Write the structure tokens for this entry.
Amino acid sequence: MNPLPFLWENIMRNVCASLRTGTLAVATATAMLVACASGPEIRRDTNPAANFASYKTFAFFSPLATDNAGYETVFTARLKDSTRRSMEAKGYVYADTNPDVLLNFFANVQDKQELRSTPATIGYYGYRRGLYGGWSTPAVETINYQHGTLTIDLVDAKKKQLVWQATAEGRVSIEARKNPGPAIDAVVTEMMAPLPGPGRM
């Protein structure tokens, strides 16, 4: 069983809570799909001009795009912890001064609706069994759901150039949104898995 749908839904609950309290910046966020049954759709792209052989150290943008209230949100802090672990696991070294690359985050959650049509049989009761049936008419149901996005950017600090990006995108369900820490770790690890290590092309 793929754990990412459950975990990703937890992440987005934390995002939604931040949105409701006005602590999460979303105006500049880029798009992604949040997990349904098969997990979030994850897309990655690398700038062909990027020279990963020259990258060894990293830090974070300040302020990050997920902070627009003048202070660091809990959501941002968790993203920083998770991405830092992923970067260090690959061999990058965190550096406050003159880092080679900078990480930035973008997030967005949108309320959406979906119409579902299912047949409903009218005019059938047990006493008619085997004699005649009723008729079917479509029952239309409105489903409210949330569509979430998360993007991680890696930027060449000297050139101010985007060199790598991972985006996760999908539908947010309401079943499991209670443990955002492990959820963020799982999705970030999946998003950053193909990122080249330091000194590699």
